[in-house]
C-alpha cells in the first residue's frame, strides 16, 4: 500500500499515532514541507543577501577601516532587502491555487494560521539570514565585538520584518504586479527596525550597553506579534474577496 | 429600530453621497472665505508686523508656513486613517471617499513641510537636511502617503482599493506618535513642539498669535481642498445614479 493519500494513515498501527494538528501547527508544518520540496527558493534570498553585501566593497571602497565602519548598516540593509524580496511569494502560490480561499473559509482562527505562515517564512528566510550574517560581518571587517550584537539584533529584528512584510504581501496578493508595490508599502515601516537594529550593532562595536536597543527591538516584535496578524488577516480577506 | 437611537441622525445621513454632496456644496464658500481671509491676514501679519527673532532674525519667519504644514500633514493622516476605519467598520462609501481624497493633499502638505524645513535648516543649522528623528519620521510619513496613493491606484476595484488602503493607513498610524514624541524621546537638533494644549507657547504673543491664525487658515484651506476632491470623487463614483445625471444635464 504505497499509493495512499498522504494524510490518510496507511494502517492501524499508524492510525494510533496519527493526530490532527491544530491550525497553528498544521499550517506551520504544511508551509515548511512545501518549502522543503522547492529547495531552490530557500537559497535564493541567502544568495541575494551575500551578493548585495559584496556590492558595497566593490562599489564604494574596499578599505578595511571604511568597511568596518559601514558594516552594521550594510549587513542590516542587505538583510532587509533579502527579506523584502522573499515577501511577495508568501501568499502568492496559496492565492493562485485557491488554498488561501479555503483557509479563509475554514472555521479555524485566521490569526493562528497567518501567524504560523509568517513563522514558517521567518524560519526559512530571517533565521538563515541571521545565521549567515557573521560571515558577512567577517567579509566586511566588522570588529569581533560587534558579532554578538549583530546576531541578536537580527534575531529580534527579522521576525518583525517578516510580520510587517506579510501585511504588504497580503494587501498586494490579488494584484498581478505586486513586487515593486510591496516595497513601496513596506519599506517606510521597515525604517524604525533598521535604525534600531544597526544602532545596536554600532553600539556593540563601540562597547555601549545594548539593553536599550534590544528592548526596543523586542517591543517592536511584541507589538508586531500581537497586531500584525490581525492586519494580515483583514488584508487577506479584502484581497481575496476583491 | 429603537436600539439605534444613540446614533445621531446626521451620522446616517453622512453615509449618503448625495446628502454629503449637498452639504459640502453649502459649506464650501464659508470655508473658502475663511481660508483666504486667514491666510492673507496671517501671512501679512507674520511677514510684516511680527517682530524678528533675536537670534535668527528674519529667517525664522518661515515658521509661519513650516509649523502649520507639519501639523496639518499629521492631522490629515489621522483623518485619513479614521475615515478608513469608519469605511472598514460601517462600510460607508463616503468615508472611503474622504480617505481617498485625503491622501494626495496630505502628501503635498508633507512635502511642503519637508521643503520649508530644509529651507529653514540651511541658515539655522548650516545644512539642508540632518538625519534626526523628527525629520526622518516626517519623511516616513511622506513615504507612507506615497505608498497609500500607489496602492490605491494599483487596485482597480474602488471598494477593494478603499479597504486595502484603509488597512495600510491604520498600520501606518503607528508612525504618528513617533513623529509627535521624537523631539522628546531623542536628543534631536529639531526644536520641541511650538504649540501644546496644556502650556503657553515659549514665544511672545506677537509671534504666536499670527502663527495660530496661519494654522487655522491652513486647516480651512485643507477643508476646502478636501471637499473639492470629495465632491469630484462622489460625482465620479455616482455617475450612474439619477441625481448625478440630473445635476449634469441641469
Order of helices and strands of chain B: HHHHHHHHH
Q: From the structure provided, what is the oligomeric state, counting identical versus distinct chains?
A: heterodimer
Instruction: Report the biggest beta sheet of chain B as strand number plus sense, adding barrel if it closes.
Output: none
The major sheet of chain A is characterized as: none
Number of helices of chain B: 9
**Mean of residue pLDDT values of chain B:** 87
Shape of chain A: elongated
Count the DSSP helices of chain A: 11
Rg measurement of chain A, Å: 20 Å
Total strand segments of chain B: 0
- Ends apart, CA distance between termini of chain A: 44 Å
Proportion of residues in extended strands of chain A? under 5%
**Percent helix range of chain A:** over 70%
Silhouette of chain B: globular
Strand residue percentage of chain B: under 5%
Distance between the termini of chain B: 37 Å
Order of helices and strands of chain A: HHHHHHHHHHH
Q: Low-confidence parts of chain A lasting 5 or more residues at pLDDT below 50?
A: none
| Sequence stretches where pLDDT stays below 50 over 5 or more residues of chain B | none
Report on the structure:
The complex is a heterodimer of chains A (242) and B (250). With 242 residues, chain A is mainly alpha-helical. Chain A has one domain (22-241). In chain A, 81% of the residues lie in helices and 0% in strands. Chain A contains 11 helices and no strands. The model of chain A has no long low-confidence stretch (mean pLDDT 87). By secondary structure, chain B is an all-alpha fold. The two termini of chain B are 37 Å apart. The model of chain B has no long low-confidence stretch (mean pLDDT 87). Chain B has a domain at 65-234.
